[in-house]
Here is the input.
Amino acid sequence: MSDVSKALYLDLLKKALTDYLHIDHAYANGVPSEHWKSNSLFKKLRNAWLIRLMRRSHVLVLKEDRLTPAERRRRRQGGLDWPLMAETMIGLKRLDNLQDLCTAVIRDDIPGDFIETGVWRGGASILMRAVLKVNDVTDRLIWACDSFEGLPPPDPEKHPADQGDIHHTFSTLAVSQQAVEANFEKYGLLDDQVRFVKGYFEDTLDGIPAERFAILRLDGDMYGSTIVALNTLYPRLSAGGYIIIDDFGLGPCRQAVEDYRAEHDITEEIISIDTFGVYWQKRP
Here is the structure.
């Protein structure tokens, strides 16, 4: 596959995974994630007249949003809405970054598999598998780790920063393993290089039979989910590999990252991707 063909395929895939191809549909968005920072779904909520509460799922869904196409594109690029029909809600900027980092570790021959903790509908992991595919990489695995039943209730005695967290009440975040596998299959990317790890992170991550990782993508939202993944997986990140924190813009997740870095004297520069996501490269 030529470089031009690779670029065209991956660009189209990212637009499909984010449902960017239907961005002009005024009903295709959920509540912008910027409205529920710090675990408050209603904090600084704007344009309340546009929404209705779907009580069973605890998700706010926009009626016709009356946004301009340019504003819809801006939000979808930055992962600031919940696309109702997409395989990922992280937006194009974070997908672009993920592609760039995966490509970099392949080019630089940084050893290890790719892993995502918190996959939702599978979009980011699907992109990672596609990057391996177009580069003819057959000796790395994609590890897709999730409870596939939603987020756990907070444990404030163990992780005080998660006090009052309500992510576990969002049924829309509970996507079955079968549904995620079907999404991989839809894009022709379900094969033996993709491994699913079902269960809460504290019960599963330590037992993953991978010696090293080249890419860690953490998307656990909460302090507990993030610190468990850091404690378990970061020691296995190869020198020169990358760690991506999807939810650094959320207070509890950011605190977990800062606590871990301070405890382990990690001083590598944290680089922002967009409003929420960051990454850094582990020092060689």
Summary: The helical segments are 3-17, 69-78, 91-107, 123-134, 177-186, 201-204, 223-233, 251-263. The radius of gyration is 18 Å.
